[in-house]
Please model this.
Amino acid sequence: MNVFIAGGTSGIGYALARHYLEKGYCVGVCGRDLKKIPESLSEKFKPFQANVCDIDSISAAVHSFTGHENNLDIFINCAGSYAEDVAGKISYEEAEEMLQTNILGTVNCFETARKAMKGHTKGKIAVIASVSGIMDYENSSLYTKTKRSVIQIADAYRRALKPFGISVTAVAPGYIDTGKLRQLNNNDLSKKPFLTDVETAVNIISTAIEKQEKLIIFPAKMKWMMKSLSLLPSFLLNIIMYRKAQWMKDDQP
Ligand SMILES: NC(=O)c1ccc[n+]([C@@H]2O[C@H](COP(=O)([O-])OP(=O)(O)OC[C@H]3O[C@@H](n4cnc5c(N)ncnc54)[C@H](OP(=O)(O)O)[C@@H]3O)[C@@H](O)[C@H]2O)c1
Model:
């Protein structure tokens, strides 16, 4: 089995790479900076330098991984950009990178994966969105809006690729204990409710891909909290979510 993970050089993507290598699969990963890779895992682990915002770059990486055969079984897009953009406190550069990576990068990954699976009737594609993307409210952060778009882009590709036997799984996790999340929060995750460890997340994500689930939201407590909040009138939801974001960052309202 061949698995390619865009954004597989650290965090959730790298943990997924380890998981598939332990199963004996051949795993290609990419990122912009290969020095991030904690350790090269085995001869079946193939790292490529590529940027998902550039379709030629990601296509070349996947092509180098698969060679001339369209034998890619699983493609997972973990490449994502997130910043602490509470209350709109985000620079132009951060916003640009977030939009490019999370939206254009998602489309580029779907296009690359579908080509690498052409003629293959059992391909599986997955993309990491966020639990925040399941809620629709006016004052949500730019990150949340991009992740909502990721879920919707996945819906569109699921419909388009179904006739070719390719499944699309959108993954909407709550907080996962990765180095990046720690770095953004000065190593203090005490205000991140229902934090999930990365091994648990990998098990949930890989099982959902295997079962060809359309959308997996986890952990369950976070899922039900978000679904309950979604039932509130939008003005109330806006206030609650904004206050919650400020509390997390110790901002004054
Ligand atoms: N951790 C959480 O709590 C959490 C919760 C919900 C959703 N998520 C989502 O899960 C995904 C992974 O998050 P993480 O915490 O594991 O973060 P991470 O460790 O920073 O992983 C992101 C990966 O994507 C790569 N990447 C970023 N921009 C890229 C680009 N333009 N082209 C190619 N690769 C790129 C990074 O490598 P380079 O920077 O070297 O390119 C890295 O390998 C993200 O989409 C994030 O939004 C995370």
In short: The chain has a mean pLDDT of 92. The radius of gyration is 18 Å. The domain at 2-248 is CATH 3.40.50.720 (Rossmann fold). The longest helix spans residues 92-116.
